[in-house]
Specification:
Helix content is about 45%, strand content about 15%. By secondary structure, the chain is α+β, with helices and mostly antiparallel strands. The protein starts with a helix and ends with a helix. Its main location: membrane.
């Protein structure tokens, strides 16, 4: 940004005019010139431009400095789970290094654990930085909308191609068709008869807006400022001279830029992220307490003392033992943290994005998938989302047999496809003269076209004219023309092309805002001339003297017949239809001999738009048509689905109130006869409410019409403050701030601007509201599945903690080392946890109210269940370790074949005192191809000799966790009613995990890395015997849970009946 622009806020008080103090739209053009000290003929002088540049700065948007990469990287470690992992990795790395320095071998196995944890943290940081670096792209896309050049009058000369960033308030700018407005400007005078500007992306209006030089009330909203042209909007018709009133960040575009930046600063964590953070904090406390408890239990092993006169003396401290129990504490941390959870969540969300993409919802930010599942309010735009954004004729009114009678025809269809629907009760092939006249005018007084593309049928030209072309095709041709005239033309526009062949257009009377009509002069066989006119019904009636009846006869238009036509107009207008009238004039006297020659006297009339009203006089009125942007066919059902799912729908549109209300009634946001006086208000009225929160707290649908960007932002902000999870749709630049602020910003893929897409979390490929509802259902399903694997992984980790705690509490040798726990958490648990993400969705998922964003991941009962399961995991893994050392058989399974020596449980608990035992010897034993011999040091049996017992413990842990994944298929359902094959991916994943476990068992190099040995068949039988009961235990707990819930439901039902 230029220096002047950076200092703008400080120096503004010294400047001449600012939109904050001078409402240019409410002043006459000459008053604006006086205020900005400029005249339109000469423009500003170079000296004045330089002076104003210093005051106002360059005409460009601010560049907000984003966070540095270093800051972004640091932010990725601002997470409790990540910090615990980081500390655990650093400590284990230091301990591994220390052991090597003390004379031990620096084996790779010692460093596997810290290196793997570091790798996880690095990948997590890279993904996080990549996601956050995309956050400011919406601001960059906004700058693409700005015009780069402008045609400016300075020093009484016209300069084309002046860099737009050099414009200052007071500059005189010329705009032509196709130009993009370089700043906010006041229209001084129109060079052409009309000026139309496409500003929908900024204001939400569905059509190009006519501009004027006349002032409007000072309190007008952005849509009402008809004499202003805004930066970034495009001229689609006409040219004009304008006065620059605001530049840079003071423009409406600049305000949007500021709002996007402000919204991006207040982005919050997703509900799941908040829950995981809370879980991480709880976990930190638990780990700390358990570590302290483990140390207190084992303090006697590394710190001893004698009592003298009642006081402890002669303290003996064993650093080696202290380090050993410190390593146990590190193992405890590794066991307690589900290291694989971030990877599994990312995988599940990524799979969810693929499913959603198949339903036309393209997710840009992975966490959005989960947030969608707890959406409580959908704030939807109307145009293009609830409606097709394709104008269509809904009703055709033709004249009857008498002057006081009319005929109405309902027209089906909601798109530009001529085959989409038909005209009800239509006399196909038997069109009377009056209907033929309407068809001819609709076809010829029309500059639009319809084309077939990859995206379906699209309009070329004005949407209203395209809708009339579609009407012509649905009307068909009269029987006399059907055979020959349309032969050889395409099926798509055959009827319009047939009319073109019969009547050749020789002149056009362009639309202007005063007469509100458009006319064409056509010639039939270069002999008969006709003037065909379409436009606002009231204006055409004022200039009509006759009406055409059904049989083609013409009678005088009297007050009674005019009232009948106006009644039809009012009826359609009340139904939020945009109504166009059709009229004609045979053999207009000025054009009887005109065939397009420039030297003909009539040609001069065509060059003077002020003469068009007199040409279009004494018309014969033929009929009228009601058009609208129709609702999408699937939207009413989607609204009903939202209602069933407990999701409130609010419509926020820039369109006018009556049109929006009619659409909302039709699609079911409001009931057909519902009193909506308190539920439908404009954006301005909402901002003026004393208590806007109570308005938003109303049940059912709400409508906000004529809404501006700041209104949308305020609505979203207040809803979020009230604890709602808000999904907001939008397509224009004006929607970007609200999209950024909402929990889920949803942009339109077809009609959406790049700014809106970059600010959004999700893009609708088909711009369809029903796609949002489908995505919410998918989000709920994904969240349920995520809960399943989070419960599974946490219950597994509770088991690992119990195992280590019991080992330390009993005082037996370490049964599982950190690298083995890390393997289980990351690799063995990963596939089943991921496969749980494929659980089939609950068929009633969209019949339940949305979960609250503060709902707990794990209920007290579920936590109790998994504490029981975890305790069993701990008992089983420690138990199998003890069984191998103390028993030669268990449950009839022979364990003595390898020749290992048995010890008593007491000896196993006091293994560290082995050197003091007399006559203690150990026999060598076989494990795979290895022979373990302890002749030189029998006490080594409890260190290197425990390898078989460790392998059994690890295998039991893996097997239990595989069987426990079956328990996680459903929170409450038994495996008898929800068998494993409902999710075949889980069976595949279990096979993969067992396969990976076999890999590290039976590949010698990997077995050495993980400190394990191969197992025999009998030993595998022992593993299964110890592991399988976990299914039975959880089935009993599920049964108790179902029985308890059933009792509570019955009790509530009885109480309700009694009341």
């Amino acid at each position: 940004m230029g220096k002047g622009a950076q200092d703008y806020g400080k120096k503004e008080s010294a400047g001449e005019a600012s939109s904050n103090s001078f409402a240019a739209w409410a002043k006459e053009a000459h008053e604006c010139e006086e205020k900005y000290q400029v005249d339109r003929k000469n423009g500003l002088s170079d000296g004045e431009v330089e002076k104003r540049l210093k005051i106002h700065g360059l005409n460009e948007l601010e560049k907000h400095e984003g966070q540095s990469v270093f800051r972004l990287i640091l932010d990725q470690f601002n997470d409790t789970l990540v910090r615990i992992l980081l500390v655990a990795a650093v400590i284990s790395f230091v301990l591994a290094w220390y052991d090597g320095e003390e004379g031990g071998e620096m084996e790779i196995t010692a460093f596997v654990e810290p290196l793997v944890i570091f790798l996880i943290l690095i990948v997590n940081a890279i993904v996080g930085v990549w996601q956050e670096s995309n956050a400011e792209k919406a601001l960059e896309a906004l700058k693409e909308i700005q015009s780069e050049q402008a045609t400016v009058i300075r020093n009484a000369k016209k300069f084309s191609g002046l860099p737009a960033k050099e414009l200052v308030p007071g500059d005189i700018v010329e705009l032509r068709v196709g130009d993009k407005a370089p700043a906010d400007m006041r229209v001084l005078n129109l060079v052409s008869s009309t000026l139309r500007v496409e500003q929908g992306s900024l204001t939400g209006e569905s059509e190009a807006v006519s501009k004027t030089t006349k002032p409007v009330p000072e309190e007008s909203d952005i849509q009402g400022k008809k004499c202003m042209v805004f930066a970034g909007t495009t001229v689609v018709n006409g040219n004009c001279i304008c006065l620059v009133t605001d530049t840079g960040m003071n423009t409406e575009l600049g305000k949007v830029h500021s709002q996007i930046h402000e919204a991006s600063q207040s982005e919050e964590d997703t509900p799941l992220k908040k829950k995981l953070n809370e879980f991480g904090e709880t976990l930190t406390m638990m780990i700390g307490l358990i570590c302290i408890l483990v140390w207190l239990i084992n303090v006697k092993y590394f710190l001893s003392w004698e009592y003298l006169d009642g006081w402890p003396t002669n303290f003996t401290f064993s650093f080696e033992k202290c380090t050993y129990y410190f390593e146990i504490a590190v193992a405890l941390a590794v066991a307690a943290i589900p290291e694989g959870l971030p990877a599994v969540i990312t995988t599940c969300l990524a799979l969810g994005t693929r499913k959603m993409a198949q339903k036309n919802a393209l997710v840009r930010k992975l966490p959005s998938v989960e947030t969608l599942g707890c959406t409580t309010v959908i704030c939807s735009d109307k145009t293009g989302t609830l409606t097709t954004n394709q104008m269509a004729v809904a009703k055709l009114v033709a004249m009857g047999r008498t002057a006081n009678a009319v005929r109405s025809f309902n027209v089906e269809g909601t798109s530009y496809n001529p085959l989409d629907g038909k005209i009800q009760d239509w006399p196909a092939g038997q069109m009377d003269v009056n209907l033929q006249t309407i068809a001819k005018i609709a076809a010829l007084a029309n500059d639009a076209s319809i084309e077939r593309s990859d995206k379906g049928y699209v309009a070329g030209g004005m949407p209203t004219e395209a809708a009339l072309k579609v009407l012509v095709e649905k009307m068909g041709l009269p029987s006399g023309l059907d055979s020959g005239s349309s032969a050889g033309y395409s099926d798509l526009m055959g009827c319009s092309q047939a009319w073109d062949k019969i009547e050749r257009r020789i002149a056009t009377l362009e639309f202007d805002r005063d007469r509100k009509s458009m006319g064409v002069i056509v010639s039939s066989n270069n002999v008969k001339k006709s003037l065909l006119v379409k436009g606002a019904v009231e204006n055409l009636l004022e200039r009509s003297s006759y009406i055409q009846l059904l049989d083609g006869s013409v009678v005088e238009l009297d007050q009674r017949s005019k009232s009948v036509i106006l009644d039809s107009l009012n009826e359609m207008s009340t139904g939020a239809l945009r109504v166009l009238g059709f009229a004609y004039k045979d053999d207009p006297s000025e054009f009887t001999s005109y065939n397009g020659e420039e030297d003909h006297p009539a040609h001069k009339l065509l060059l003077d738009p002020t003469s068009y009203s007199s040409i279009e006089s004494n018309l014969t009125f033929a009929g009228l048509a009601g058009l609208r942007d129709p609702p999408r066919k699937e939207v009413p059902q989607a609204i009903e689905d939202c209602r069933a799912a407990g999701i409130q729908v609010m419509v926020i549109t820039g369109d006018n109130k009556n049109t929006a209300e009619a659409i909302c009634r039709e699609i079911g946001v409001f009931g057909p006869n519902e009193d909506i006086s308190s539920k439908s208000i404009t954006g301005r009225q909402f901002m003026e409410l004393r208590d806007p929160r109570s308005h938003l707290a109303q049940k059912g649908g709400l409508l906000f019409s004529r809404a501006e960007p700041r209104h949308k932002q305020e609505i979203v902000r207040l809803l979020k403050d009230a604890g709602e999870v808000v999904a907001m749709t939008g397509d224009g630049v004006n929607d970007a701030p609200a999209l950024k602020l909402a929990d889920i910003g949803i942009a339109m893929g077809i009609a959406g601007t790049e700014v809106a897409k970059e600010a959004s979390d999700m893009v609708l490929a088909d711009d369809n509201f029903s796609t949002i509802v489908a995505a919410v259902g998918e989000g709920r399903s994904i969240y349920n599945n995520m809960k399943a694997f989070i419960r599974y992984m946490i219950s597994s980790n509770i088991g690992e903690v119990a195992c280590i705690f019991l080992t330390a509490a009993i005082g037996i040798p370490e049964g599982l080392i950190p690298v083995q726990l890390l393997w289980v958490n990351l690799v063995t648990d990963g596939p089943p946890a991921t496969a749980l993400g494929f659980n089939p969705p609950d068929k009633y998922i969209m019949k339940k109210a949305p979960r609250r964003s503060d709902d707990s991941l794990i209920s007290p009962w579920i936590l109790f269940r998994y504490l029981v399961i975890g305790l069993y995991v701990g008992v089983a893994t420690v138990g199998v370790f003890v069984i191998w050392f103390t028993h030669d058989s268990f449950l009839g399974i022979d364990l003595s074949r390898d020749g290992h020596s048995l010890v008593t449980f007491s000896q196993l608990r006091n293994w560290d005192q082995c050197k003091s035992w007399e006559n203690f010897t150990v026999s060598p034993f076989q494990a795979g191809d290895q022979l373990f011999n302890f002749e030189s040091d029998p006490c080594d049996y409890f260190r290197t000799g425990k390898v078989k017992a460790m392998t059994l413990s690890l295998s039991v842990l893996v097997a239990i966790e595989m069987f426990n994944s079956l328990n996680a298929l459903s929170e409450d359902e038994s495996l008898l009613t929800m068998p494993p094959w409902v999710n075949p991916w889980l069976l595949v994943a279990m096979s993969v995990s067992f396969g990976l476990h076999f890999l590290i068992l039976y590949v010698p190099f990997l077995a050495q890395v993980f400190g394990i040995v191969p197992l025999s068949v009998n030993e595998w039988l022992l593993v299964l015997a110890v592991a399988l009961p976990v299914i039975l235990i959880d089935e009993i707990l599920k049964f108790v849970g179902r029985w308890t819930m059933s009792g509570e439901t019955t009790s509530k039902s009885s109480k309700h009946k009694a009341e």
